[in-house]
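Weekly modeling sync, notes
Attendees: S.R. (lead), two postdocs, one rotation student

Agenda item 3: backlog of single-chain predictions. S.R. asked that every request posted to the team notebook include the full sequence so nobody has to chase files. The rotation student volunteered to paste the first one in as an example of the format we agreed on. Action items at the bottom.

Example entry:
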Amino acid sequence: MTTSTPTTNPTPHTESTPTPGTRTRLLLTGGLAAGPLFLAAGVAQGLARDGFDFTRNAISQLALGTHGWIQTANFLLAAVLLTAAATGLHRLLRTTPGGTWAPRLVAVFGASFLAAAVFPADAGAGFPAGSPDSTRLSTHGAVHMASGMIGYLALCAAFLVLARSLAARGHRSWALASRLVPLAVLAGFAGSSATVLSFTAAAALGLTYLTAVTARLLTDRS
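Predicted structure, as returned to the notebook:
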């Protein structure tokens, strides 16, 4: 007489989206707050400072003059918050597509704000009040511009990398937006030769979208 041993079919393994822990949430809050705080402080200063004109002056120039320390502190705060956000993204995405490079690129973006604080922009276009126009870049002005360019290129690259992670999570519209926003940011920078408002709008778009995509990742439960 023979007996048969019952067999059990293995339960198929399904991957679920990891839920952010408390520490990860706190770190990612940096990504939520960095853009709105930086932009709100910049706009408030631009409206209050004598001689500043949003159609002629970049927000970076607010770090010049008597009250320039406020904008310098604004740069430093943004650098801290963005670095925290990069750490939070690493904790959240490390096992998903794009989980390696997206946090690194956001960290580069954060470092560019630190460089902007250490190496201020040049005076010009009437700000600080009475400053003559000049086409010559100082060393610190050149470093400021280069760091900003590198930082925003890194942010655009981060969005493209994040598109993979968002698509893997089933957020196709967010993945598409993450591929289109970098194009809009770069187009805005290209238009800055015609008006500084184009540059300001592009920079604001990048910061705002980082807030939005961080919020999407924080509330993800799929």
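Discussion: group reviewed the output briefly. Residues 1-17 have pLDDT under 50 and may be disordered.
Action items: rotation student to repeat for the remaining queue; S.R. to check formatting next week.
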